[in-house]
Every structure is written in C-alpha cells, then in structure tokens.
Write a structure and sequence with these properties.
The complex is a heterodimer of chains A (about 600) and B (about 290). By secondary structure, chain A is an alpha/beta fold. Chain A has 19 helices and 23 strands. Helix content of chain A is about 35%, strand content about 20%. With about 290 residues, chain B is an alpha/beta fold. Helix content of chain B is about 35%, strand content about 15%. The longest helix of chain B has 14 residues. Chain B is globular. The interface between A and B is large, with 82 and 66 residues. β17 of chain A pairs parallel with β2 of chain B, so a sheet runs across the interface.
C-alpha cells in the first residue's frame, strides 16, 4: 500500500463494452469517498468495436486535467493492453481479462492482475457486460476503497426499479473485490466516506446554468460533442418546463431561437464547429435585428469532419470573423464545468442587456464525458432583461410604428415583445432607420440614407465599447513573480494548472493567465501582457489562433507556443516539458 | 373593433405597378380583419425578395429575416408564444428553393403557422433568374435557350410529406385568396398557401392565368380526398385554385409540446431555479 495525493485510472475496451458507464460508476464511487475527480472520454466514432478508453484522474485535492501517466490500467481487450501498457507508472497495476488478453510489454515494477473478467461476468448475466463491474470490484480493493461505497453506488446506479440487476452487479463486484483483496494493495488516496462531492461536465453545468438563467427554449441538431446538452435539456424538459426543439438542420435551429427570442423567450442553440459554420449567416441576422441569443460551440478537432470524437480549440478564428461584414458579438470560453455554470448566466445577461449574440466556446476536453468535481457555489441567477418597452403611450396606439432602433447613448434601444398593443415594429436584417424601415431599397444611396446607415452602424458597434468594460481580464493562476507566464484560453487552462503545481514542486516558478472573456478583450489586457515577463502560449490548434488574435489586438507577439492538434487533450506532462524547453532547462 | 385602418402602414410598397403581391397584401389584411385578429397579436415573418418586403407594408409585428429562413423563425415565435398568429410571407425562391427543407419539416411536424408563398415562377428582385417552379422551356436570364430543369410541384410535394392544409390562390382574386388565408389561419397546424402572384416585369403570365384559373369549390372538389387532391395538383387541364387538401384531426406540434411541458410557453416570463433545485441538479450525477 502506498498513500498518494493523486492517481489515475484508465479503462480500455471496445466500443459497446460499456466502459463509459463503468467510468461514471467509478467517478461516483470516488466522489462518494470524498475524492476530487477529472475524467476524459477517449471515445471513437463507432458504436461497436474499435478501441475506446475512459480516463480518471483522482486526488485528495482538486484536479483539473489528465494527471501523469496511468496508475491503474484495466485492459478488457488486447488493444487496450498494447496501446496503454507502456504508459503505466512505476508502482502501478494492470488488471486484464486473462480469458482474452495476453500480458504483453508490461514494464518492470508494475503489478499484473489477471482475472477472467468476462467469464466471471457470465455467471451473473447471459451477456458479459458485467465484466466492468467485476473490474470495478478489483480496482476498489486495490485502491483500498470500502466495499460499502461500491455497493451503495451500484444500488444508486440501477435504482429500485432494477433491484435484481443491482443485486447481480453487486455479486459480480463482490467477486472482483475478493480477487483484488488477495493482492497486495497498490496506490491509494485518503478517503472520507462522510463527504459526497458533486461532479458534472461542462455541457451539463452550462445547461444547468442556462436553465437557472431562465432559458426556456433550446434548439439543436445532433452533433458530437454538443449532443449531451440536448440530452440533458430533453431529460429535464418536462420537469423544468423547457421547450427542446430538435431541428432539421442547424440553420433551422438558430433561426428558431432567434424567433423565440424575438417573441420574448430566453433562447439558446448548441452545436459543434460544422454546425456552427452553417449558422454563421444567422449570427449576423441576430446582431442586425438586435435579437439576444446564446449559441454554444462545443469544439471538436476539425477541419471539416476532422476527428469527430476528439478535442481541439480550432474554432476561434471562425468566431472572430463570423459571416459578412462587421457586427457586434461576444465570445466567451469557460475553463471547465465549474465556471461554465456562471458563464451561462452571464451569457444570457450580456445578451439581453446589449441585444447581441453571445458565443460560448467549449470543447471535448471539458465537455462530453469530461467530468470534473464541482467546487464552485452555484447561485441562483439574478435576471435583468435589459431595456424593454412594456406598454405603449397613448399616441402610439394611433397608427405609428414603434421606434425599435432608437439611437441611444450606449447603442441599446428599448425592445418590445409581440403581443404588446401599440408597439409594433419589423425586425430588420436590411439596413434600416430607427423605426425599422428599410434604407436598403428605394432610399439606398440617398444622402439621408447614408447618414442613417452610418448612425445605425455606429449604434450597433458601440455596444462593444460598453461590453468591453464588463469583460474580465484573465484570472491569474499561480504566483505573481514567475519565470514564465503561460497564456491559456478556455480549457487549455486545466493542464496548465496541473503542470504549474508540479513545476512549483521542482522549484520552477510559472503562472498562467486564464482567458475566459475572449471578445471583446478587457482594456487592461494589453497592459497585463506588456508588464508580464516572459510569455508562452498554450492552445489546441495549429496556428495559435488566440496568440495571433492577441497580437492583432495588443501588439504583443508571443513566440513560444505549444500548439496541439492531434485530437488528444493537452497533457500536463507536455506542458511541463514545454516550459522546461522554453526556459532552457533539462527535461528529466 | 378591428378594421383595415389599424393594419395600414405609412410605408409604401416598392413593388412594380401591377405586381401580384399587392393583391396578396390586400387579401392578407382582409383576412386578418375578417378574423378579428388584432395587429399586435400578429407576427408576419418574411425572407428576402420582392414579396418578402411585405411585413413593412402591414402594421403588425414583423420579422424580415434571411433568404429562405422565415419558416424556422416563425416556428420559433409560435413555440415561444402560441397565442400569436404567425404568418410567413415569402417567395418561391425562399420557400421552394433555398429554404424548402424547412417547409418540408414544418409540414410534417404540423407546426401551427401559415405559410403564404408568392409564387411567380421567377426570381424577381435579382432581375429574372430561373426559380424552382419555373416551367420547362422557360426562357430566363439563366436559361436563354429555355429551361431544362423540371419544375417543383409544391402542392403535391407538401401533401406527400404529410402537410395537413395545402391550398393555392391567385393574386388576381384577392377576395377568394382572403377566404383561403382565413381558412389557413384557422387550420389546426401547418398551412401552405401557394399564391400565383405574377411578376409583371420578368414573367408576366397574368392573362394566361386568368384564362386557365378555376375554383376547386365550383368543381365540387372534396378537400379530404387526398387522391383527388393530388390529381388536381398535377392537372394540366386549367389551373385550379382553392383548398386542395385539408384534415383537422392531426394535433399541431405546439399542442403536442404543450402536452409535454405544460401550458407555460417560453415567452411567458423568465422562470429561474431556486437554490434547492440547483443543488439537486448539481448532485444529479454523483
């Protein structure tokens, strides 16, 4: 037995073997033992077969990312053994299904735990699916987890309705636990069974935040890895009164939420990069008609179909350069499920108060299957719908159009909601005057129309000057006096956090600037970057889209960049090596 | 008291003199007045093109959106507030070309909206290109040697995908058209009103249509008979107008949704979650 501060578990199998739910059960067992977790779903775009894996990083203190190597590998297939055995840390263990897997390339100092997982499972069911449960029993024993927690978790998993299934799973787990108990215990954490920690992935916590913010209309077309948002909302639709509209395509989805918002609802759409590409024209439509909407892009590795089940941060350029000409938009990128909740509430708030589209960038590394322990307090939302015209004055009831696009100091005009007498107007994608009348057709090019065009353009764009003041500068993670500052945005903050803590242990002082408010940039950012010491960029795309954007906006060029585009999440060990290289230190 | 004056806009239509769309505008106003629907409870949603300029010419709530996308905007409005009367006014390019996919799916879901398509068999505003309903052999700027594209038959298409109200009117008969629009608005679910609304500049077929047109009611057509309706939609013996097909026994998509989530539509005030509910959902997976 070795007490550790954190450890990792990886389950490897074929698609259809059920390791995602096995991974989720393990995450639950750990969370009910007071342990902090981060998980990653290494899945493939196949329904059956192939090679899929589920990774769990668990710690006595909060963890954010993949951790270091693998401490416990469970290999259900030969491919899992072959692919991952070399990544297992010293003092680790490999549990494998000895009825089908040969113990190949097991490095020295690693314990092999063979067990006939599938055959044992067949004692309890006609299909070998419970091999997962057997392996969880073995893992729990090796990790020194009280079996009572395993039992309780299985009960919760299957509920009262499937008591028989729960009991058979408990028997399978018990047999696994007995096998594990015969072995010498391996790495283990310090468990606190009185504490149950919550966990969510960012798709779920963002959905929860959206509903907390009063979003009652969601439209989407299925696209990995954004689909868990529609699953979550559909599962809670009846309970929470949410209208979920599964559209015929993403163009329909975004136009439907624009219609819903125009009619008074808080509305949202979600997709991944390819679907967002289809939505682009309508983002301009929302900005031009000044209709508030929130759109989520859970990024995956592109371009085009790219790697549909793998991660990346390559959609930033699309968001910065959305569709035709200039129009106001807001781009935010939460770090993980912890801030995704409040980011959802902020997104609806900003969108309503400024009547602009808000774009939220998340990705696979924090989305579908990437659970993290929630340490943040999730507070109820305070609702501010912005400038609304609720009632017409007497003269408005006699044949005049509502001055929907009234020129104002901050560019935001009072908005009326259909159904309100006397405040009729036409929301316009054509350039228009304050009353929503076209200046695009019979007035186009006339002197009066030129003036109107300029005023309306300025009206829309100056919202950004006000929004800028509300955007947050990056949070600083780590000490203030450092040898190097890592620039991260959205999810790339997570591996940086783990690397920074490890480097601190080695006496190397690094911090990170975690950007979540991407566009428009807070006005302090330029000063922060210029006053910082050495900078290095960390992001998940080929060209360094965020670093290039920072250069354009601030003139600060970041030369050292760690850019990852192979579809895998950024590992803290890679960040550590990158930092050592940048600082000219030897990598051990 | 709802009267025509309430729907009057101070914006003058920029359509060519003699354009069919004037007749459609008049018929729509007449229909809304006849049904006593107040302007503030009406939302007219359009796409891009001559006909899609209509919302500014009738003083109701309006949304002048993107080319081909008024149907999803309209169903978003309707889902958000089912009490509103939601009408799409667009052209054949919008609804049978770039946005046809949305029409098909709105029809099969039975979204409770009325879609009025001002069908002139040509792209007018972009100065005369071939449209999805242009005829074989039709000479346009894009088909100088005559079109070799087979035209879409929107009526049989929408009947084929499960449309529950399929009709055609003629802009030259606004009273008859007003009746069709009234029936379409009253219909439980998705209603297609295809309107032959000739373009006097690029493809003037007024005289021809006037000669060929006849009313289905006069021909004793029974709109519950789909087989006959399909025959009528495809006939080359004259140009039938009226209600081709109609059934009222299919619940609208909005009715179905309300059965699931209750009668508290999304637009009726923002409903937040309290701390206990948030905590419960936060712990849902652990």
């Amino acid at each position: 037995m070795t007490k550790v501060e954190d450890l990792t578990v990886r389950l490897g199998a074929a698609a259809g073997d059920g390791i995602q739910s096995a991974g989720e059960i393990l995450a639950r067992i750990l969370s009910r033992s007071g342990i902090y977790i981060y998980t990653y779903n290494g899945n493939q775009s196949v329904v059956r077969g192939g090679h899929v894996w589920f990774h769990i990083h668990a710690g006595n203190k909060p963890v954010y990312s993949m951790g270091y190597g693998i401490d416990y590998l469970v290999a259900f297939t030969q491919q899992s053994m072959d692919e991952h055995a070399s990544e297992v840390n010293k003092g680790g263990a490999i549990i494998y299904d000895s009825s089908s897997v040969k113990p190949a390339n097991i490095p020295e100092g690693i314990k092999a735990v063979p067990a006939e997982l599938a055959n044992i499972a067949l004692k309890y069911d006609k299909y070998p699916i419970m091999k997962n449960t057997v392996s969880l029993g073995i893992l729990a024993a090796l990790m020194g987890i009280d079996f009572k927690i395993v039992e309780e978790t299985i009960h919760t998993q299957f509920g009262k309705k499937k008591e028989d299934v729960a009991l058979r799973n408990i028997q399978a787990a018990t047999e696994g636990y007995q096998i594990g108990s015969k072995q010498e215990r391996g790495k283990e954490l310090t468990y606190d069974y009185s504490r149950r920690l919550p966990f969510l992935h960012s798709n779920y916590s963002f959905s929860l935040g959206a509903v907390a913010a009063g979003c009652r209309f969601y439209a989407a077309y299925p696209m990995t890895p954004a689909s868990p948002i529609v699953h979550w909302l559909a599962n809670h639709a009846e309970e929470l009164g949410i209208t979920v509209f599964l559209a015929e395509d993403e163009i329909s989805a975004i136009n439907a939420i624009i219609g819903a918002s125009y009619a008074g609802a808080r509305a949202m759409a979600g997709t991944s990069g390819g679907g967002f590409a289809l939505m682009q024209e309508a983002l301009g439509e929302a900005a031009m008609t000044e209709t508030p909407i929130v759109v989520v892009d859970v990024m995956r590795a592109g371009p085009s179909t790219g790697l549909p089940t793998k991660t990346g941060q390559g959609d930033l350029n699309m968001m910065l350069g959305l569709s035709q000409d200039d129009f106001p938009r807001v781009i935010v990128a939460p770090v993980n499920a912890n801030d995704a909740y409040s980011m959802a509430i902020r997104s609806f708030d900003i969108s309503d108060r400024y009547q602009v589209p808000v774009i939220v960038l998340m990705d696979f590394a924090i989305g579908d299957g990437a659970y993290i322990t929630i340490t943040e307090d999730f507070s109820p939302a305070e609702i501010n719908r912005g400038k609304l015209a609720l009632q017409a004055s007497g003269d408005m009831l006699n044949g005049t159009w509502f001055r929907r696009y009234q020129l104002t100091e901050d560019g935001v005009s009072p908005r009326s909601i259909p159904g309100t007498p006397g405040l009729m107007y036409v929301a316009k994608t054509d350039e228009h005057d304050e009353f929503g009348h076209d200046v695009s057709d019979v007035l186009a090019g006339l002197k009066s129309a030129l003036k109107t065009r300029e005023q309306m353009y300025e009206k829309r764009m100056k919202k950004l000057d006000y929004i800028r003041k509300e955007m947050r500068p990056p949070a600083v993670f780590g000490p203030s006096r450092v040898d190097l500052t890592l620039i991260t945005w959205g999810s790339s903050a997570n591996p940086a956090r783990e690397a920074i803590e490890r480097l601190r242990g080695k006496g190397i002082s690094v911090n990170s600037y975690e950007f979540t408010d991407i566009f428009p940039l807070n006005q302090e950012v330029e000063g922060m970057l210029k006053q910082a010491g050495r900078l290095a960029d960390l992001e998940g795309n080929y060209t360094g889209q965020f670093a290039n954007y920072l250069r354009r906006e601030t003139g600060v060029m970041i030369k050292d960049r760690m850019l990852k585009y192979n579809g895998e999440p950024i590992y803290p060990a890679e960040v550590e090596n990158f930092v050592m290289k940048v600082l000219g230190k030897e990598v051990r | 008291m709802i009267n025509l004056k309430e729907f009057e806009s101070d914006v003058r239509p920029d359509w060519c003199p003699g354009c069919g769309d004037f007749g459609v505008l008049a018929a729509l106003k007449d229909a809304l007045v006849s049904l006593k629907i107040p302007p503030y409870n009406t939302v007219v949603v359009s796409g891009i093109g001559c006909s899609s300029n209509l919302p500014g010419y009738i003083r109701t709530y309006g949304f002048h959106g993107l080319h081909g996308r008024p149907v999803p905007v309209a169903l978003g409005v309707k889902n958000s507030n089912p009490e509103l009367t939601v009408i799409v006014t667009a052209g054949d390019g919008d609804e049978y070309g770039i946005g046809f996919n949305h029409v098909v799916h709105a029809a099969r879901r039975n979204d409770n909206i009325t879609v009025i398509v001002m069908d002139n068999l040509i792209y007018g505003l972009t100065t005369g290109q071939l449209s999805p309903t242009s005829r074989e052999g039709q000479v346009t700027k894009t088909t100088p040697d005559g079109s070799v594209y087979r035209p879409l038959n929107p009526l049989s298409a929408i009947m084929g995908v499960g449309g529950t109200f399929v009709s055609r009117g003629f802009s030259g008969q606004p009273k008859h058209l007003s009746w069709i629009i009234q029936e379409a608005i009253k219909h439980r679910g998705f209603a297609l009103v295809d309107v032959i609304s000739p373009c006097v500049t690029w493809f003037d077929i007024y005289d021809e249509v006037k000669k060929q047109v006849f009313k289905l009611e006069d021909a004793g057509h029974n709109p519950s008979d789909m087989e006959k309706a399909l025959q009528m939609a495809q006939t080359d013996k004259g140009l039938p107008i009226g209600i081709f097909y109609r059934r009222e026994d299919v619940p609208s998509f909005q009715e179905m949704l309300q059965q699931q989530i209750g009668k508290n539509p999304p637009s009726k005030g923002v409903k937040t979650l309290d701390k206990d509910k948030i905590e419960q959902l936060k712990y849902e997976y652990s």
